[in-house]
Fold this protein.
Amino acid sequence: MLKKYSLIISTVYSMLLLALSLIKVNTAGPELPTNSDKIFHAVAHFVFTVLWYLAFVSKKVENKSAIIYAFISSTIFGIAVEILQGTLTQNRESDVKDIIANIIGAIIASILIISIKKDSLKNNNTLLF
């Protein structure tokens, strides 16, 4: 079932992530530690990479290529969003540290996918993919 809807889920997630990245953020509330938003960036791009990996695999893209495509898609998407934040919005700004956090999230997701895939091949189990 997840494979059947993975492209739709990935697309909707990407659109939501783009929208949330470009809207004005309400800063009311408790003060967060400096750079704590980098964790959110890493998690968002971890999820992005996993979802797009599943979408590529569901479209019969070979496993290794699907991992590479998902990683590259996440990286390009993250850079594009940062550029858009710096050029299209008055209330958001580009940050190289955000791009680094995005890439770290994508790397962790890729490593996890590779290790799960290797383990599932050893045990002759397909898990989610």
The two ends are 11 Å apart (CA to CA). The longest helix spans residues 96-122. The CA atoms of residues 2 and 128 lie 8 Å apart.
